[in-house]
Amino acid sequence: MDLRIQRSVVSTLRTRPKAVEIGPFVAGFDPDTASPFVNYATPIPDVPITAADVDALIGAFTGAGRKPRLEYVVSTTPELEELLLGAGFTVEVRHRYLVCTPQTLTVPPVPEGLSLTEPTTDPQRAALSAATAEAFGALWEASEADVIRLRRSQERGGIAIAAFTASGECAGGGQATPPSDALCEVAGIGVREPFRRRGLAAAFTAEITRRAFDRGVDFAWLEASGGDSWRVYERIGYVPAGHRLYISKN
């Protein structure tokens, strides 16, 4: 499972507007944003890595005007962390990811007064992008580039779900990456403060996951940032699995 997920991350980065292969790494650069959450690299499984490879990776990020940063499943390249730390990288966070299968998924009801829809127009995509940015504490500013990335993902088979009130206000939503090796990542799950604690995150996470399974995905995976979100995802059928590392160099 760890290997399949890491391979899917590699495949996803290879679809970025400016994907670059640097020895045993794939870096996904986006010219429309300098966000480190969008621009990062990951190792290719089963390919040896040396300190010189890490230096080359740093050089590629520097040349692109981006912060050197990686995300990867730890078990697939266990020797990499020591090399990165030796090159001046700092661990941002370690996450344990969760997985769900069609057999374990439970789809809860949608909270009253809200409806779930897949954005099909750019204004709907913009509303979803703005709502999730707000839900994450404005760590980034929603922009036209977010709309473009979301539209591009949907065109390649990715899924997006937004929750709207009857008046058209977006309460939050989330996405799933285009399928790769019959799996996908569910990500960007965010609910705006006025709509929290009503079961909405569970509802649209389950709906995104259900739609992924309807499109032939074998299992979906996601990461939880804290105890509350863990409980949300476990209630709809996600179970803890492997570990991922986020690490960067200032």
TrEMBL record:
Gene3D superfamilies: 3.40.630.30. Residues 115-250 form the N-acetyltransferase domain. PROSITE patterns: GNAT (PS51186). Keywords: Transferase. One of its GO terms (molecular function) is acyltransferase activity, transferring groups other than amino-acyl groups. This is Acetyltransferase. The keyword Hydrolase does not apply. It comes from the Bacteria. The keyword Transferase applies. Pfam families: Acetyltransf_1. SUPFAM superfamilies: Acyl-CoA N-acyltransferases (Nat). It comes from Actinoplanes utahensis.
